């Protein structure tokens, strides 16, 4: 027998959330019903699609194979809906963006607020995670990344370059030995990412400048900046975060100036989705403009 779309929709939700209760919350149905529908789908296909583990519901090999076809079906349903409704003046529905927490905290809130103002019927969700967003499992409709993925069927578009510098508070610099060169950093407390939790080589800033010890570490940019603002040490910071932390001062600007890039990554199957294309264009323009504005500083 062929599974119906409603059962496939429930299957996709459980595959993404790895939980009956989380899937039910998203679908607005109770977890017991979700479980019964999954059992019905498994009976229809005569295959076990999930195994229960301590981490939740994990796809079996058969489930993995079904997931690929389910995602294609979902993309086809979205495209069909867009073809029927046609272009509209404003966007509606729900769109989820995945992003590392630097951009999620300091760029996306104001960018998404402006898009929301122009599209009052649109629900925008920002998924801030210190790891690569899994688009293949539809964790998000699109993702902002710090490197361009080379594997998978994805649409990748460069958004903007951005700068990073070393920073500290005036108070910290007055209380400690002067920092005139990179070599002087060895006498100071460095703040940065947890080394074995750096999920993208582009985030390994301190290694790039020869620092081999991180005394205070976090997988969150916001936590790192909070620690620096308390006057506890020195870190590498995005220039676009500095207007939010006026107490921080750039140091070693003639020796340390890193350039990184943001990319917008999407499902290849969405390239004809007019709604997502319009949102992606607005998001790209918004991030690019916001990086330029914040890097220019308060006097620009």
Question: What can you see in these coordinates?
Answer:
The chain has 300 residues and is of the alpha/beta class. The chain has three domains: 5-85, Winged helix-like DNA-binding domain superfamily/Winged helix DNA-binding domain (Arc Repressor Mutant, subunit A, Orthogonal Bundle); 92-159 and 261-296, D-Maltodextrin-Binding Protein, domain 2 (3-Layer(aba) Sandwich); 161-259, D-Maltodextrin-Binding Protein, domain 2 (3-Layer(aba) Sandwich). Helix content is 40%, strand content 23%. Strands 3, 4, 5, 6, 7, 8, 9, 10 and 11 form a nine-stranded mixed β-sheet that branches. A two-stranded antiparallel sheet has the order 1-2. The longest helix has 25 residues, at 61-85. The protein starts with a helix and ends with a helix. The model has no long low-confidence stretch (mean pLDDT 88). Belongs to the LysR transcriptional regulatory family. This is LysR family transcriptional regulator. Residues 3-60 form the HTH lysR-type domain.
Labels describing this entry:
single chain; 300 residues; alpha/beta; Arc Repressor Mutant, subunit A; D-Maltodextrin-Binding Protein, domain 2; 9-stranded mixed β-sheet; two-stranded antiparallel sheet; 10 helices; 23% strand; elongated
Fraction in beta strands: 15-25%
Radius of gyration: 23 Å
Q: Quick one: biggest sheet?
A: 9 strands, mixed
Shape: elongated
Oligomeric state of this protein: single chain
Question: From N to C, what is the helix and strand string?
Answer: HHHEEHEHHEEEHEHEHEEEH
CATH fold-type name of the largest domain = D-Maltodextrin-Binding Protein, domain 2
| CATH level-two architecture of the largest domain | 3-Layer(aba) Sandwich
The N- and C-terminal alpha carbons lie at a distance of 64 Å
């Amino acid at each position: 027998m062929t599974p119906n779309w409603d059962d496939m929709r429930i299957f996709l939700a459980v595959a993404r959330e790895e939980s009956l209760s989380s899937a039910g919350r998203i679908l607005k149905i109770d977890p017991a019903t979700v479980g019964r529908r999954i059992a019905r789908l498994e009976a229809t296909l005569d295959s076990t699609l999930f195994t229960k583990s301590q981490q939740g519901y994990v796809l079996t090999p058969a489930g993995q194979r079904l997931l690929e076809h389910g995602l294609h079906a979902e993309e086809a349903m979205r495209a069909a809906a867009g073809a029927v409704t046609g272009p509209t003046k404003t966007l509606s529905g729900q769109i989820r963006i995945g992003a590392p927490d630097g951009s999620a905290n300091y760029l996306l809130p104001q960018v998404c607020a402006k898009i929301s103002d122009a599209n009052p019927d649109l629900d925008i969700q920002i998924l801030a995670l210190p790891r690569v967003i899994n688009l293949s499992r539809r964790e998000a409709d699109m993702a902002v990344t710090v490197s361009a993925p080379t594997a998978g069927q994805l649409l990748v578009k460069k958004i903007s370059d951005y700068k990073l510098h070393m920073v500290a508070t005036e108070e910290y610099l007055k209380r400690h030995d002067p920092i005139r060169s990179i070599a002087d950093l060895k006498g100071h407390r460095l703040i940065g990412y947890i080394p074995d939790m750096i999920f993208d080589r582009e985030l390994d800033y301190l290694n790039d400048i020869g620092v081999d010890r991180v005394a205070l570490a976090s997988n969150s940019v916001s936590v790192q900046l909070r620690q620096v603002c308390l006057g506890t040490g020195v870190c590498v910071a995005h220039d676009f975060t500095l207007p939010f932390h006026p107490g921080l001062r750039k140091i070693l600007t003639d020796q340390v100036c890193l350039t990184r890039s943001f990319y917008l990554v999407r499902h290849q199957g969405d390239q004809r989705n007019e709604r997502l294309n319009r949102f992606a264009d607005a998001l790209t323009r918004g991030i690019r403009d916001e990086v330029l504005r914040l890097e220019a500083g308060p006097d620009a």
